[in-house]
Specification:
The structure holds two protein chains of two kinds. Chain A is of the alpha+beta class. Chain A is 27% helix and 22% strand. Chain A has helices at residues 32-42, 49-52, 86-99, 120-137, 192-198, 218-227, 241-253, 268-277, 299-307, and strands at residues 66-74, 80-81, 84-85, 104-115, 140-149, 157-167, 183-186, 233-235, 256-260, 291-294, 316-322, 329-332, 338-340. Chain A has a seven-stranded mixed β-sheet with strand order 8-10-7-11-9-12-13. A four-stranded mixed β-sheet of chain A has the order 1-6-4-5. A two-stranded antiparallel sheet of chain A has the order 2-3. In chain A, helix 6 (218-227) packs antiparallel against helix 9. The longest helix of chain A is centred in the middle third of the chain and has 18 residues, at 120-137. Chain B has 17 helices and eleven strands. The chains are: A alpha+beta, B alpha/beta. At the A-B interface, helix 8 and strand 13 of A face helix 3, helix 7 and helix 17 of B.
Chain lengths: 353, 364
């Protein structure tokens, strides 16, 4: 047995190093590494008075009125895709869900579930795009949480966002309020987001120029409501696509909806990708489009206002609400025949948002 | 979009419909072979525009629909194995086997992945040398060259961890089975354009001659389909059976010789069960004996799994054109795309699914 002292200069500290190029379990454990991650990486991106208090909750001073509250969890794969990433998608998605009630979204919470080993640089990139998206949408990130799970327990990073906004007193939108004679307006082209994600999926080896349409639509909503105070309902056709949203409207209001195939627009590269992959753009997710149903008397005003907004330049009337075939959506085809536009069955493509 | 817009042109379609109306004098039953054509017919409402004398009968050309239950059951057993990455075209994942489907096996932990090309599965085999990658190769002559190429490439690279469950089917034997059935009602065929793109049309000439029927290779857009119908009606009215190609921009008489050569190199003709129809002699393809190492059914010893088709629905009669989907009492009630009782409701190309999607509730 040796009596020599060990050479301490050759030993390294068994505690985790403070500088990591990947996320470690300890980053979510509530200790020093957690604090460092929050202080150095997260807080600088999400500046808001509430968040900087570093309390367990945000205390909000909301104007009077009904509060719209929504939550969504984002698991898109891959997390970076043409035109966006999981970060701006998580901000825009919840902003849009709150905004579709007519509310002005004010504050968001953000919850991260991160897989051990996730690259720190990727996390930073996601945070930066969340910062930009929140600034664009004019919302504050007021509270948050970060959990790290073991390798294999999630796929890279999942993000939950919840949001609140206050609905103006004179605005009461409902998918159940459609009446025959109303017109259906779509804010732009179909299927950009879903096809952008699809074309970069493993197993597809597909090259294209398609980019996601991810965008916050609260500004467009304000524009619509100003021009069309009688607006019946608004919804952003995400998973399930426009076909599913329109079916939801028809069922909720017990009315029929009659669409005109020639009124829909799909970008040529998106249409090409859909044709090759055998996918109907009506069922593909959008992340920066909305469908508005407005009384016929307001259609011109709303359409003109939408076309004057950056997210509604290609807005078009795509159909009308009818008393016939309640609960069913039909479409006049290019040949002048009529067919059913059904709800989506099953998933065309999993994990697109 | 070029090559699409002109084939969806309403004016061209109207002109063709006029000509069909002028030509037809008697009732005719015409079968479109391919599920893609059925889908297009329902999507554009072409059946609503045709004169009453013409009845379109929907053929067996949906590979998902006709894949036998037995193949699905064997696939499920292989997919459930620990070391397997199981790959398939998306539509096959939802097809119910006897007690299960691939989605459910996946939810219990199996590694099941959707691919658009079998060469993606070969890539997975290359990148995962310690896993077995299995591809479920279904389809008609159209997908056979790609699926054969995957085996050829895996062999060339010396990959020993790639294999295929091959359940390929061939169109001409199915047409003969329909024409020789005592209950046959079909008088003319729109042949499947994409199958003909690979195989050409020479193999249809003996069938047209033997049974005295017109066979017209036809595309998939509305104008293509109307041109195919017009040509078929002309041949029927003039009593001049034979093969006339109307998918001129894609189909050559010899098809695609390079693609056919790959298929011949990797696969050989065999008897094949068709879901809802039964065994049709020499109507399928299987991996050649010398390439048995790539045959997943042999590799994983599942050839003793034999499944009989239950008498649950009339998909057999639908696939032979004897009945229409809405003539089934279960259509749209017990049997829907969410809970399909039979093959033709499962795939988006299935006749029942196409009817359900576009024209239930007696519209128009």
């Amino acid at each position: 047995m040796t009596t020599e002292h060990p050479d301490f200069s050759q030993m390294s500290c068994p505690l985790p190093l403070m500088d990591h190029d990947t996320i470690q379990l300890a980053h979510g454990a509530g200790g020093l590494l957690s604090a460092e991650l929050i202080d150095k990486l997260i807080i600088p991106r999400f500046t808001s008075p509430e968040l900087e208090m570093l309390e367990d909750q945000a205390v909000l001073d909301l104007p009077p009125g009904l509060v719209a509250f929504s939550t969504d969890t984002f698991v898109v794969s891959p997390i970076f895709f043409p035109g966006g990433d999981i970060g701006d998608l998580a901000i825009n998605g919840t902003v849009n869900d709150v905004a579709m009630s007519g509310a002005d979204p004010v504050a968001l919470s953000v919850g991260f579930v991160i897989e051990e080993g996730f690259p720190m640089a990727d996390f930073h990139r996601v945070l930066c795009s969340m910062e930009t998206a929140a600034a664009r949408a004019g919302v504050r990130i007021v509270t948050g949480d970060t959990k790290v799970v073991g390798k294999g327990s999630c796929d890279g990073i999942f993000i939950n966002t919840s949001g609140v906004g206050v609905i103006p007193e004179d605005v009461r939108l409902s998918a159940g309020s459609l009446a025959p004679g109303d017109v259906v307006i779509l804010s732009g082209t179909l299927a950009d987001h879903g096809m952008a994600v699809m074309t970069v999926r493993e197993g597809l080896s597909f090259q294209s120029t398609v980019t996601s349409d991810t965008a916050a639509l609260n500004g467009l909503v304000n524009t619509i409501l100003a021009a069309g105070p009688g607006t019946r309902t608004l919804r952003d056709p995400t998973r399930g696509g426009a076909a599913t949203t329109l079916n939801e409207f028809a069922i909720a209001s017990k009315v029929g909806i009659k669409l005109d195939e020639s009124a829909f627009s799909v970008r040529p590269d998106v249409a090409g990708a859909c044709e090759i992959l055998g996918i109907d753009p009506l069922y593909v997710a959008n992340e920066g489009k909305l469908i508005a149903v407005v009384p016929a008397a307001e259609k011109e005003a709303v359409l003109a206002a939408m076309r004057g907004h950056e997210h509604g330049e290609e807005a078009a009337i795509i159909g009308e609400v009818v008393a016939d075939h309640p609960g069913l959506v039909t479409m006049k085809t290019g040949l002048g025949t009529e067919r059913i536009v059904d709800m989506a069955v099953g998933e065309q493509l999993p994990r697109i948002c | 979009m070029k090559y699409l817009d002109e084939f969806r042109d309403p004016e061209l379609a109207k002109g063709l419909l006029e000509e069909i109306r002028r030509t037809v004098t008697r009732p005719w039953k015409i079968m479109e072979i391919c599920g893609g054509q059925t889908h297009s017919i329902m999507r554009y409402g072409i059946d609503q525009l045709l004169p009453d004398q013409i009845t379109l009968v929907h053929g067996p050309g949906c590979p998902v629909c006709v894949t036998p239950l037995e193949t699905i059951d064997r696939a499920l057993v292989i997919a459930a194995r620990d070391n397997v990455i199981f790959t398939s075209f998306g539509d096959m994942l939802r097809v119910p086997g006897s007690n299960d489907d691939l989605f459910r096996v996946k939810s219990r932990g199996a590694d099941v992945r959707m691919v658009y090309s079998p060469l993606e599965a070969v890539k997975m085999a290359r990148e995962n040398p310690d896993r077995e990658v299995v591809f479920l190769a279904v389809g008609f002559e159209t997908t056979a060259p790609g699926n054969a190429m995957a085996v050829k490439q895996a062999a060339a690279e010396g990959l020993t961890n790639f294999s295929e469950i091959v359940s390929h089917v061939l169109v001409p034997p199915a047409m003969e089975a329909i024409l020789s059935s005592p209950s046959n009602l079909v008088q003319g065929f729109l042949a499947a354009g994409h199958v003909c793109a690979i195989m050409g049309w020479e193999e249809y000439e003996p069938i047209a001659a033997k049974y005295g029927v017109p066979i017209v290779p036809t595309g998939f857009e509305p104008v293509d389909i109307l041109e195919g119908i017009l040509k078929t009606v002309q041949l029927l009215e003039n009593e001049t059976p034979g093969v006339e190609n109307k998918y001129l921009r894609v189909v050559r008489e010899q098809g695609n010789p390079a693609a056919r050569a790959v298929v011949d190199e990797v696969y050989e003709v065999c008897d094949r069960k068709w879901r809802g129809i039964g065994n049709i002699p020499r109507s399928g393809l299987r991996i050649r004996a010398e390439l048995a190492a790539f045959d997943a059914e042999k590799k994983f010893a599942v050839e003793d799994i034999v499944t009989e088709e239950p008498e649950i629905c009339i998909s057999g009669e639908i696939l032979q054109g004897l009945k229409k989907p809405h003539e089934c009492p279960a259509f749209g009630t017990e049997c829907t795309p969410l809970s399909p009782l039979g093959a033709t409701m499962v795939s988006s190309e299935g006749a029942c699914a196409a009817y359900h999607k576009y024209s239930r509730k007696g519209l128009a």
